[in-house]
Design goal:
This protein is an alpha/beta fold. It has 3 domains: 3-246, 4-Layer Sandwich (Glutamine Phosphoribosylpyrophosphate, subunit 1, domain 1); 247-452, Rossmann fold; 454-598, Glucose-6-phosphate isomerase like protein, domain 1 (Rossmann fold, 3-Layer(aba) Sandwich). Helix 14 (407-426) runs antiparallel to helix 15 and helix 17 runs parallel beside helix 20. The longest helix has 22 residues, at 431-452. The radius of gyration is 25 Å and the shape is globular. The relative contact order is 0.08. The mean pLDDT is 94. It binds fructose -6-phosphate (F6R). Fructose -6-phosphate binds at residues 304-307, 352-354, 357, 360, 404-405, 488, 492, 608-609. Fructose -6-phosphate (F6R) is lined by residues 304-307, 352-354, 357, 360, 404-405, 488, 492, 608-609.
């Protein structure tokens, strides 16, 4: 995810900004830039690459002054390039902006501004803000009013810093659904998207809330809402994290941080893509191929590991709701099995967090060689897979640092739900059903928030089970792939042996293993296979197998069979996997920590698997 730093005070801004950018490097980025204001002019330096290159670039020597903004960019709109790197300026290069988040309606805003004569230099969504501020200033508004008027037109998410030569002693900060903190120094402010960029200078930190605008001027600050109401009671926190803690947002590990980020991750994946009234999913990345997609007769989903399990859930969703036949394949098998693919009738959809997985990339090549439409759901913008597919959807989950995928998995499930809605409404799905899915999808982030409150109780369960050396993870239908994912999570980070499977398959062999030393984790929400799942649970109980059950809130039956029960909020059956996987992530995480394992960097594993 992108990183923002701003400085206004008495010292030279550049060293503070570069230090801040370095602290934000862990978040991942592809380009960096800085702008500093001095004597009526704003000087800018940008690079594609590392902050070190920016610090060593020739342009840096011209950047002197005590007010500045800086940014590390993780491309979302427009490829990584100097042109697209922030800060972005207006037509007159007197107003500069850095921004985290996504401006959903930027195309419309850009079109209007271009019609009014504004000239854009980048492909980014961010640049519209600089031009909007320019427009409102030209209409006679002061700087602060111009920023507020601009932000009122913006739909989406932002953490933003703006400065202008016309008010050189002022820095404006604002946010909506994207974090922004203000460090309160002595006669100086350090503003950043993340406390790690601030803590070197001060521990006194104020957190801006949504739709608030802070004006930092002459060592003083004021905060008002976008509508102009003065905010007076905002407390300044003392954050006494060390640097390592700060990078992890105060969490012990990146994996835990990423588990806790999931409500926002899902919101980011849904943002601008759900039209509730029309029961539609708006997938801009598929616009160019939507007519071809209407005609396909089969979709083949190809991926590896966790992404493959997400694909399996997608298969159930799309077949049930769009009545489009779907087959999910492991990428390393797909490339060697001579798949039968027919142009116009088939499409291949690959899922990949990194966008660099060699086996998955090979599937894209296979599809292209056979003249079949290739589609991607990819997290890393500009990655090889993103570049090689005919059309694609980005997860917008931000960088995932823990090797074990968590937040990108739920994001993949979210995007696949949107895809089921998209295909469904193209084919047979009624408006009523479309609306229902859209409404339920928008409730998912809050359901996830509810599950996050169960972290402590799941820790207690993990403590009771951590010394078992084998586990089954079992589920049916939509939650069968989640059983596979739960087992993978546990084994990859705790090194405890775990197998995932379908509850219905137990009696065809695996049940032979069940005894009091081989616990099972059943994913058993109140869905269309609930009764069947309960019977399978009884079979395990009859063999003295211990059971942890994940069910739906209000279910009193599970507790009569299972030893431990975790209840999650009720949602549509197709969406239950997004919720049911979270207790399994917590369970794996706590088991690994209790066993003293390196959760973020498990042995023998790499985040991006670029070899066969
Ligand atoms: C497990 C995990 C892996 C990846 C797999 C595919 O937690 O993260 O199984 O899902 O290696 O990687 P991507 O999605 O980058 O193609």
């Amino acid at each position: 995810m992108c990183g923002i730093v701003g400085y206004i005070g008495k010292r030279e801004a550049a060293p503070v900004l570069l230090d801040g950018l370095k602290r934000l490097e862990y978040r991942g980025y592809d380009s960096a830039g800085i702008a500093i204001l001095k004597e009526g002019a704003i000087n800018v330096a940008k690079v594609v690459g590392r902050v070190k290159q920016l610090a060593e670039s020739d342009r840096m020597s011209t950047l002197q002054g005590t007010t500045g903004i800086a940014h590390t960019r993780w491309a979302t709109h427009g490829k990584p390039s100097e042109r697209n790197a922030h800060p972005h300026g207006d037509c007159t290069s007197t107003i500069f902006v850095v921004h985290n988040g996504i401006i959903e309606n930027y195309k419309e805003l850009k079109r209007n501004l271009e019609e009014e004569g504004h000239t854009f230099k980048s492909e980014t969504d961010t640049e519209v803000v600089a031009h909007l501020v320019e427009k409102f200033k030209k209409e006679g508004n002061d700087f602060e009013t111009s920023v507020k008027k601009s932000l009122k037109l913006v739909k989406g998410a932002y953490a933003i810093l703006v400065m202008t030569t016309s008010e050189p002693a002022t820095l404006i900060a604002a946010r909506l659904s994207s974090p922004l903190r203000i460090g309160m120094g002595n006669d100086e402010f350090i503003v950043a998207s993340d406390p790690s960029a601030i803590l070197n200078y001060t521990q006194e930190i104020l957190t801006l809330k949504d739709e608030e605008v802070a004006v930092l001027k002459d060592g003083e600050f004021t905060i008002t809402s976008l509508n102009g109401d003065r905010v007076i009671d905002r407390e300044v926190e003392k954050i006494d994290w060390d640097m390592e803690q700060a990078e992890k947002g105060g969490f012990a590990h990146f994996m835990l941080k990423e588990i806790f980020e999931q409500p926002e991750t899902i919101e980011n994946s849904l943002r601008g893509r759900v039209i509730v009234d029309e029961g539609l999913a708006k997938l801009g990345g598929f616009n160019a191929v939507k007519d071809e997609l209407r005609e396909i007769e089969r979709l083949t989903i190809v991926a590896c590991g966790t992404a493959y399990y997400a694909g399996q859930v997608g298969e159930y969703m799309i077949e049930e709701y769009a009545e489009l036949p779907v087959e999910t394949c492991i990428a390393s098998e797909f490339r060697y099995r001579k798949p039968i693919l027919t142009p116009k009738k088939d499409a291949v959809l690959v899922l990949s967090q990194s966008g660099e997985t060699a086996d998955t990339l090979a599937a894209v090549s296979e599809a292209r060689e056979k003249g079949v439409l290739s589609l991607g759901i990819v997290n890393v913008t500009g990655s090889t897979i993103a570049q090689n597919t005919d059309a694609g959807i980005y997860n917008h989950a931000g960088p995932e640092i823990g090797v074990a995928s968590t937040k990108v998995f739920v994001s993949q499930l979210t995007v696949l739900s949107l895809l089921a809605l998209f295909f469904g409404r193209q084919r047979h799905m009624s408006l009523t059903m479309g609306k229902r899915i859209a409404e339920e999808l928008l409730k998912i982030p809050d359901h996830v928030r509810t599950i996050l409150t169960m972290n402590d109780s799941i820790l207690e369960i993990a403590k009771r089970y951590v010394n078992y050396s084998d586990f089954y993870f079992l589920g049916r239908k939509y939650n069968y792939p989640i059983a596979l994912e739960g087992a993978l999570k546990l084994k990859e980070i705790s090194y405890i042996h775990a197998e995932g499977g379908s509850s219905g398959e137990l009696k065809h062999g695996p049940i032979a293993m069940i005894d009091p030393n081989f616990p099972s984790i059943f994913i058993c929400p109140k869905d269309s296979v609930y009764e069947k799942n309960l019977s399978n649970m009884e079979e395990v109980k009859a063999r003295q197998g211990k059971i942890i059950a994940i069910g739906t809130e209000g279910d009193d039956e599970l507790g009569k069979i299972a030893d431990d029960v975790i209840l999650i909020p009720k949602t549509l059956e197709m969406l239950t996997p997004i919720l049911s996987v979270i207790p399994l992530q917590f369970f794996a995480y706590h088991a690994a920590v209790l066993k003293g394992k390196d959760v973020d960097k498990p042995r023998n594993l790499a985040k991006s698997v670029t070899v066969e």
